[in-house]
Amino acid sequence: MSRPAGEPVTDQSVPVRPRAAPAWAELAAAGRPFVLCDGVLAMFTRRWGGVSEGPFATFNLSGGVPDDPAAVAENRARLLAAIGPGPSRVAWMRQVHGSAVAYVSGGRANGPGDSPEVDAIFTGSAEVALGSMAADCVPVLVADPLTRLIGAAHAGRAGMASGVVPALLAAMSDAGAAPSRMHAIVGPSICGGCYEVPSWLQQEVAAVVPGSACRTRAGTTGLDLRAGVRGQLARSGLERVTEDQRCTAESGELFSYRRDGQTGRFAGVIWLAR
Ligand SMILES: [Zn+2]
Question: What is the pLDDT of residues 215-224, one digit of tens each?
Answer without folding.
Answer: 999 999 999 9
